[in-house]
Amino acid sequence: MEIFRLRYPDQLSIEQGCAYSLAIGFFDGVHKGHQEVINSAKKTANELGLQTAVMTFNPHPSQLFSGKNIGYITPLAEKIRLLESLQVDALFIVNFDWDLASLSPKQFIDIFIKRLGVKHVTAGFDFTFGVKGSGTMKEMSELSDGMYGTTTIPKVTFEHDGKVSSTKVRELLSKGKVEEASLLLGRPFRSVGEVVHGEKRGRQLGFPTANIETDEEHIVPSNGVYAVRCLIDSQWYPGICNMGVKPTFHDPDQRKATAEVHLLNASMDLYGQEIAIDWLYRIRSEQKFESLEALKEQIGKDKQTAIDLLNE
Questions:
Q1: How far is residue 264 CA from its own chain's centroid?
Q2: CA atoms of 208 and 205, how far apart (whole Å)
């Protein structure tokens, strides 16, 4: 997959010679709704003899306008990995700043659609562009001047929960509902981070853990104990993860939540390594214990629960 990073008005030139069927959107999560858009663009590319391209934006428009962290489901590196796995030929990463946000719908189309050799544009029904989100797929079609076609993907729904959306995925993760989130994503929710030194509490309790430092802009599941799998040096390992503040030892109001993983069938020095955590099942909420023995006993039960769940 070829990656182009574009910034208006400076870095806009790419080598011409390719004609694209373009899927456009922010695609945070690359969930089933996003996959519908991308797969439709791929189908059109095959029918018309085009390259498949995706256009995304960084950072999220909401983050620019509010100045607040929205909590990415897929930080940019993870989004790139997922799009590559969908066999996209080209990825356009457009820097979203105030200059870009000020473009009219027509200016956006002239610069980011027509100039890039796009012959077909596919987006979701709620995709907007241009100043204050004033452009819709209707304008995308009306302003084409016959240079490209358009396809609008209708709302993708999941059972009784309504539209499959990034907002819904964030809501589920904020409640620790990782299994339900995985259904909307089409895969387990993943966190990626580096193993850093911790307090070594787990080792003292007989359950050594790896402390994972994740990107602050990356959403994590709500505090609790989870059955997980971890990707380390291209190999998967089953594990149990505590996401939280360790209230038995700390004041919850004075502590940042962290992820601590205990591998079920392996022991190794992981400091400084990058680990991917796939969150598979929620076992219980985080709680404070009156004694270390009570905590140790519960961890033993949690470990057995994780073994049972992961061996299903």
A1: 26
A2: 8
Cβ atoms of 176 and 236 within 8 Å: the answer is no
The answer to whether residue 112 is domain-embedded is yes
pLDDT value, residue 140: 97
Q: Does the pTM of the predicted model rise above 0.70?
A: yes
pLDDT under 50: residue ranges of the chain: 247-251, 254
**Which parts of the chain are beta strand (E)?**
2-6, 20-24, 51-58, 90-95, 118-124, 149-153, 189-196, 210-214, 224-232, 235-244, 258-263, 274-284
pLDDT value of position 206: 57
Shared domain check, 276 and 197:
yes
Determine phi and psi for 264, rounding to 5 degrees. -80, -30
Residue 170 maps to a domain: no
Residues 6+ apart with CB under 8 A from 295: 205, 248, 289
pLDDT at 255: 56
Q: What domain range includes position 250?
A: 188-310
- Are 197 and 144 members of one domain? no
Tokens 């959403």, residue located: 219
List CB contacts of 26: < 8 A, sequence separation 6 or more: 56, 57, 60, 61, 166
**The token pair that represents 122 in the structure block:** 């596919």
Closest CA relative to residue 75, chosen from 191, 163, 169: 191
- 148 plus 221 within the same structural domain: no
Give pLDDT, residue 245: 66
Query: Domain tally for the chain?
Result: 2
